Backbone:
């Protein structure tokens, strides 16, 4: 295996081992996402009928909020014993460390989404099973785009005193196109007359954002992490 | 992958954080088989200098030469020749002792990881606790494990930031003995410490920093307390 991929795999596996052992970030994030969906369901579902297109919006806003929480907690863990510095000291390509952290966050968020999506389907009567592959692809590409920017900023802010405020302030404006593409693509699938073509068009846009965000993050990670 | 050098030269290095000056025009040299101590009051710039030597911080001005090359010229391969025992220990508390060592050994591309990890655990006196998670260890046990983690890849330059903090007398004696072994093996050691008793037993040369400036750099030779009194504990005029 090339060294770049080996390092990314090592970092991702380490993050998952730590998470499986503590389950701290997973439980917190799932609980937060579920609470978010429940609160919106109480507000937006009247007499068993949800507002039009609410399900897609609620699903993506819950993913974004839960994702921000997961990013903050994951990097807080690296800050605690300054282990991010230990990773930066390793004689490896620093972008490989970024990719490892990114994969760990993406996998964690996909687990959260596996709980979130059926709940949205149940509470908002969203037809989540009508186009499962297209819906899953939208979620995967959207999660990658959101996490690509989030991982970069969370790593960059790990030693900043105001990191909890700065992360959402920096992250949301930049990831708005990803959230919009995710919401519009999912809404096209949840429509009473679903349009797979429209969903695929939004998915293509998500893939484009992923390529741009991941490339820019790989390019800027090394200089941004050199203090 | 790593490259060898017998001398590290800090040349006119300054580091600023905005308007705050952490280091100002510091120049010193550390050589193979030598233990250089960095002394000074809190906020003197000792940890900043250590972080610059570790390539974690870039100097605002000046340069550090590892043998013939700077960190920028050497690239990531230089980091394979550096070992850093930080005050925060750089260990994952949720992982076991063996998992921590295995992870870093693989990250550093160390050959024969299982044998290296077992040897490191033996040296740290933690062979019987290899599968226990680090969060349950005492400060002394974590400190010993962190030292072995920093030495897994056999670095040429070892940087230690207050390595004796929180250790009992037996652990301090064991750590001093281990550092002497490394000095005898030709490693370059730079130690930040406030412990003058240990400094007298270990250091070959001492550099005193105050307000980001190098105010003294001399052979130790029993003069550590003299330097410390003159530059650190002497009341301000």
Residues:
């Amino acid at each position: 295996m090339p060294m770049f991929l080996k390092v990314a795999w090592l970092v991702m596996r380490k993050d998952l081992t730590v998470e499986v052992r503590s389950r701290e970030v997973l439980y917190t994030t799932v609980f937060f996402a579920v609470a978010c969906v429940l609160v919106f369901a109480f507000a937006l579902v009247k007499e068993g009928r949800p507002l039009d297109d609410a399900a897609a919006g609620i699903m993506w806003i819950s993913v974004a909020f839960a994702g921000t929480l997961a990013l903050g907690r994951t990097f807080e863990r690296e800050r605690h014993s300054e282990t991010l510095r230990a990773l930066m000291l390793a004689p490896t390509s620093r972008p490989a460390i970024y990719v490892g952290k990114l994969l760990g966050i993406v996998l964690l968020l996909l687990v959260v989404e596996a709980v979130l999506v059926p709940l949205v389907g149940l509470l908002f009567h969203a037809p989540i099973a009508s186009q499962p592959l297209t819906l899953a692809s939208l979620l995967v590409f959207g999660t990658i785009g959101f996490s690509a920017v989030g991982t970069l900023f969370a790593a960059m802010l790990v030693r900043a005193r105001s990191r909890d405020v700065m992360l959402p302030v920096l992250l949301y404006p930049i990831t708005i196109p990803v959230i919009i593409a995710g919401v519009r693509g999912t809404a096209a699938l949840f429509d009473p007359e679903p349009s797979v073509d429209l969903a695929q068009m939004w998915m293509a846009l998500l893939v484009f954002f992923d390529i741009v965000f991941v490339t820019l993050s790989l390019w800027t990670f090394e200089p941004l992490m050199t203090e | 992958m790593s490259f060898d050098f017998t001398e590290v030269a800090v040349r006119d290095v300054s580091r600023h954080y905005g308007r705050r000056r952490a280091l100002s025009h510091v120049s010193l040299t550390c050589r193979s088989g030598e233990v250089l101590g960095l002394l000074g009051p809190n906020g003197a710039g000792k940890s900043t200098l250590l972080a610059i030597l570790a390539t974690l911080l870039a100097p605002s001005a000046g340069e550090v030469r590892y043998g013939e090359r700077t960190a920028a010229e050497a690239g990531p391969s230089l980091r394979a020749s550096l070992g850093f025992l930080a005050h925060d220990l750089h260990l994952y508390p949720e992982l076991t002792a063996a998992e921590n060592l295995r992870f870093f050994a693989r990250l550093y591309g160390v050959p024969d990881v299982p044998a290296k990890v077992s040897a490191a655990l033996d040296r740290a006196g933690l062979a019987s606790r290899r599968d226990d998670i680090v969060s349950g260890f005492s400060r002394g046990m974590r400190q010993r494990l962190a030292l072995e983690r920093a030495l897994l890849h056999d670095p040429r330059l070892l940087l230690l930031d207050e390595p004796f903090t929180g250790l009992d007398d037996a652990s301090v004696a064991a750590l001093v003995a281990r550092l002497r072994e490394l000095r005898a093996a030709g490693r370059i050691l730079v130690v930040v410490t406030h412990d003058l008793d240990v400094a007298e037993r270990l250091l070959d040369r001492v550099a005193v920093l105050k307000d980001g400036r190098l105010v003294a750099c001399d052979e130790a030779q029993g003069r550590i307390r003299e330097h410390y009194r003159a530059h650190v504990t002497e009341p301000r005029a």
